[in-house]
Amino acid sequence: MQPNPFAPEQSEYLLRVMEGAPQVCRRHQFFVWSQGDLQRWLPHTIALCGAYDRETRALSFDLFNSLPMPADIIVGLLDGRSVLIQQALHVWQRGQQQAVRVGIPTPAELQEGSLGARLRDVGYRQMLVHGTTRPGRLDELESLFILMRHEAEYDDFAVASFGMLLPCLHLTYQRVAVTERLISPSRDVPAGMDLAIGHLTGRQPAITEREREILRWVRDGMSNQQIGEQLGISGLTVKNHVQKILRKLGAANRAQAVAKAMSMNALGATQGSADAMPFRDATDPRSSV
């Protein structure tokens, strides 16, 4: 059953989306914002966002995913030249540049190991695509957004919602892209791709396995003492680990660290880990840094 866009609660969700947007300037803020009330209108587990870079004269892509994802898929999605991304762009342009659903071809239609096949392997069957072009220049993209839902497809309400919310998404992500470009020490590697490349090449990631494990428990709302009991270490040792994590991620608090780690796919997934547990608020008052 589709939500009623005129229901009072839907209007309240929309208002909160609009009110929160002007405060979003950094990647981790965009991720947290996109995981809030925006999900009521545009549910997604993958958001691929592209902004036009005037230095390279091409779209520079950024990936926000709320579920762990294999590194080769991350690299493929961040490559705007991939066949799948170009096909999605072509369908959107052919559809008079309105929000459009684009199915990911079935396995029989895909080359084994291709980006589309790999997405199918992990439970994605459809993309929701929309973007903006320069005024008076319909062939020059300013931004492109591709959303996907894990094991689910988009209905007409989501298509209409995308059209309505596109200006807000465009302005918010443009601000994020400009801010990150100004403060980034290096633009050789797109944001979010560094951990994926590190995984593929065997380069040691910035977050250690123990820190990754602690981050999972932090994400699930556990206090330092509770995490220490799980790992057989003291709460003070856990606190020291958390402080190192905050410094490495440039985060101000535990919730921000979790949001950054999730947006960079840094939490991973291990059998029997906290990934199997339901999400609880990382800002729980029982959890002190």
UniProtKB/TrEMBL annotation:
Pfam families: GerE. InterPro entries: Sig_transdc_resp-reg_C-effctor (IPR016032), Tscrpt_reg_LuxR_C (IPR000792), WH-like_DNA-bd_sf (IPR036388). Keywords: DNA-binding, Plasmid, Transcription, Transcription regulation. Residues 200-265 form the HTH luxR-type domain. The keyword Ion transport does not apply. GO terms for molecular function: DNA binding. GO terms for biological process: regulation of DNA-templated transcription. This is HTH luxR-type domain-containing protein. The lineage of its organism: Bacteria, Pseudomonadati, Pseudomonadota, Betaproteobacteria, Burkholderiales.
